[in-house]
């Protein structure tokens, strides 16, 4: 075997060594990210499983144009009021439309287990959204757990 054959073999082995090193690094990084994503997915599933809410009051005072919604956090997860959404008869009503957003009587962004979220809309935003008295209210939490209740007229 001559020098040119040995030199070519050396170049091929060096290139193969560099390629395998690059492939190993890329594979290890990809597997690490995949493991992180799977762990985040499991954590999110546990959060969903530990989240439970119950609408205990949904009333409409047509004379005053007031919608009152009270939701209890019956699960084990601390929720955020900012990540909570409200649907009135299928129409999204942002929390900014509610004049009162309190947790156990306090202005708070954190809604812990056992606490009650009170939402009151007193400026007839609901009437502007639906044109009729509301029939159903759906409250959706940040993790995606929801509770639905029929609205009772008072």
Sheet with most strands: strand arrangement: 6-8-2-1-11
Mean pLDDT: 88
Tally the helices: what do you get?
A: 2
CATH class of the largest domain: Mainly Beta
> Which structural class fits the helix and strand makeup?
alpha+beta
Question: Looking at the structure, what is the overall shape?
Answer: rod-shaped
What is the end-to-end distance? 99 Å
CATH topology annotation of the largest domain = Immunoglobulin-like
> Whole-number radius of gyration?
28 Å
- Tell me the number of structural domains: 2
How many β-strand stretches?
A: 11
Low-confidence stretches: none
Notes on the structure:
It is a single chain. The chain is α+β, with helices and mostly antiparallel strands. It folds into two domains: about 1-50; about 55-154, Immunoglobulin-like (Sandwich), CATH 2.60.40. Helices cover about 35% and strands about 30% of the residues. The chain has helices spanning about 5-50, 125-130; strands spanning about 55-60, 65-75, 80, 85-90, 90-95, 100-105, 110, 115-120, 135-140, 145-150, 150-154. A five-stranded mixed β-sheet has the order 6-8-2-1-11, with no helix packed on it. A four-stranded antiparallel β-sheet has the order 5-4-9-10. The longest helix has about 45 residues, at about 5-50. The termini are far apart. The mean pLDDT is about 90.
């Amino acid at each position: 075997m001559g020098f040119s054959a040995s030199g070519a073999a050396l170049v091929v082995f060096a290139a193969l060594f560099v390629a395998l090193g690059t492939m190993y690094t890329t594979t290890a990084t990809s597997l690490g990210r995949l493991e992180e994503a799977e762990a985040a997915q499991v954590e999110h599933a546990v959060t969903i499983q530990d989240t439970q809410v119950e609408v205990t009051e949904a009333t409409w005072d047509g004379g005053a144009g007031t919608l009152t919604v009270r939701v209890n956090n019956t699960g084990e997860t601390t929720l955020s009021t900012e990540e909570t959404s409200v649907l009135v008869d299928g129409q999204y009503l942002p929390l900014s439309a509610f004049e009162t957003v309190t947790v156990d009587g306090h202005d708070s962004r954190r809604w812990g287990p056992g606490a009650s979220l009170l939402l009151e809309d007193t400026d007839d935003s609901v009437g502007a959204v639906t044109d009729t008295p509301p029939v159903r209210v759906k409250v959706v939490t940040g993790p995606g757990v929801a509770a639905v209740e029929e609205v009772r007229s008072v």
